[in-house]
Design brief:
The chain is an alpha/beta fold. It has helices at about 20-35, 40-55, 65-75, 85-90, 105-115, 130-140, 165-175, 190, 225-235; strands at about 5-10, 120-125, 150, 180-185, 200-205, 220-225. The chain folds into two domains: about 5-20 and about 105-235, Rossmann fold; about 20-100. The radius of gyration is 18 Å and the shape is globular.
Length: about 240
């Protein structure tokens, strides 16, 4: 077997979505939920972006969670840390309404289960800028469970973010495998295909393609879920 582990992106890969529509619905929901606590919607959204950008730049000295709240508290003051339970409550409740702007593809769960049945280790390599409670919800929206994955990255358990190659190195180290024994599947050329630079095999899922720099996608194996399935079959049969 030429691969021991397959890493899947979530948003736009296992969970079909238009990222811009998703973000708009997410921000509308969280700003509405937290406005009664005194958070101005415009300032709140700006602070979330600032915290997210800090997580993207994280150098590994702290968890993404710590980096986010450090930046967020610079804007709203230390008192905002007392409101963390309200943020978690949002993800458990009102965040579920965001599911309506996401799609569903039965082939996502089918592909994951097929790999597990073949003895391949499966990781959810979603950009770890959300807390676990939010990631667990999005996993469920895709027709899967957290237990379907040996590891799923969240802002609590990660100290790097995509497209930093160290994000992928961290996962490889946790699994105890070589990069050449891994396949990364994602829909974002910039965030996901960087895994190729580490020696991973990659597959670009094009159903919800993100290609901000207009890279020639023919440089990567690519296609829809049926083509991904054939690509995986070929790897497993080598």
């Amino acid at each position: 077997m030429s691969i021991k582990a397959v890493l899947f992106d979530l948003d736009g890969t296992l969970l079909p979505m238009d990222q811009d529509i998703f973000i708009k619905a997410y921000f509308k929901g969280i700003s509405t939920k937290l406005a009664p606590l005194g958070y101005d919607p415009k300032q709140l959204i700006g602070a979330i972006w600032t915290g997210t950008e800090a997580m993207i730049r994280n150098n590994g000295e702290k968890s993404n969670e710590a980096v986010f709240w450090d930046e967020f508290s610079k804007i709203f003051g230390e008192k905002c840390r007392e409101d963390e339970p309200h943020f978690d409550e949002f993800y458990r409740t009102d965040f579920q309404n965001v599911r309506s702007v996401c799609g569903f593809d039965k082939n996502a769960a089918k592909t994951v289960h097929k790999l597990k049945a073949a003895g391949v280790r499966v990781v959810l390599a979603t950009n770890p800028i959300f807390p676990a409670v939010a990631t667990q919800s999005r996993i469920a929206w895709a027709g899967l469970t957290p237990e379907d994955f040996e590891l799923y990255t969240t802002y609590e358990n990660s100290r790097y973010s995509k497209p930093n190659p160290k994000y992928y190195t961290d996962i490889i180290d946790k699994l105890g495998v070589d990069a050449t024994e891994c396949l990364m599947v994602g829909n974002d050329v910039g965030d996901d295909m960087v895994a190729k630079d580490l020696g991973m095999q990659v597959f670009l899922l094009t159903d919800n393609l993100i290609n901000k720099d207009n890279v020639d996608v023919s440089a990567f194996p690519n296609g829809d879920f049926s083509q991904l399935s054939a690509f995986i079959d070929n790897l497993l049969n080598k």
